[in-house]
Amino acid sequence: MTFHGLQWPYYRQTGIGVSGYAWIDTGYEKIDRGHPTQQGITYWLQQGRFLLRVTPTYTQGNYFVQGQAELVANKEQSTPPSVTNADDVWVRAGRWNTWDVQLGRYEAWEIYHFGMGLDLNTLERRGAFDELRGAPEIYGVTYAFYRPPGVGQAALHLYPTDFLRFELGTQIGNEFGSNALAGRPVGIFDLGWLKLKGGVEYKRLTDQKEAARAERTMRGGGAAIQFVIDPYIEFGASGAYGLVDTTKPDGTIDAEASTTTMSVGGFANGRPVEDLVLGVGLNMTTVEDLHYDPSLDDVQHFHQLQAFGAVQYLVLKHLFVKAVFAYAKADSYPTFSEPVYTNTMVSGRLRLLYLF
Q1: Which segments within the chain are labelled E, that is strand?
Q2: Of 87, 189, 294, 297, which is the most buried if we count CB atoms within 10 A?
């Protein structure tokens, strides 16, 4: 069961598979900002993306070699991805349903599930941000999950049973001028009607200049549970906890960039009639840093609540028409006599998604 329709073909025969998608978002966002130096905004946009996926596969008995490239064309994304010409570029080889090794550019296995809203690179995903501090971003064991530019992935996948699978993943490469090295083991227990996901990660960024001492260490973990009553209801909850320690080039601690983040959230989707899906979701993220103020006996902390409702209808079995309405509230509690303030956001967007 796939409420979003984003279930790609799984090519196991020798040959070349071709698939992809195109989507267009037309949307509106309004943010009211409580900081005296920050102005509120009203924002209209239309953005889009086209992706063409090519997956050549060679199979000999139970063994295989497979590659994949996803070529991307972006249309004026307001929160753009870091690389605009390709998503996946990878090669993997192994034994079907037993093990494989994968290297290249790709997303690791997901743990924290959002539901039908908060899609990547959308207005509601960013939330009630401002130009001064942004807003707390949901952490879902995602320090080594996405596809940063200049960084590659490698993973060993193991499938000991039909309902249990593991990804022993890593990242290595150049991330915005820093050397990156990460490890991210994930396990998934999947009975169809019940899915349990969990994992941890550790990522270290070090300055490439020999005399510099800048360094960032990120580690965290999380878990999720999902229930699927096919084809009527899907619901679940996720939680994750992450730590970041940041050192400046002179070797001193960067207090504001050394953070503790906790995110919890849940979603529910329902299919009242064929081709129509309704969804809701709620997420809460809390961030604390090390910027300690002795007069308050406290550090800076920030919170963001993000909620959405979504309606999706499938037209002609290939065109998904989805409306998403979202609300966010971000509370900021800075130190050293800075004002406490709150931002709120409301947004709506209509997505047309064509799968082929």
Answers
A1: 15-32, 41-60, 63-75, 86-95, 99-105, 151-161, 164-175, 178-190, 194-207, 215-229, 233-247, 259-273, 276-289, 301-315, 319-333, 341-355
A2: 87
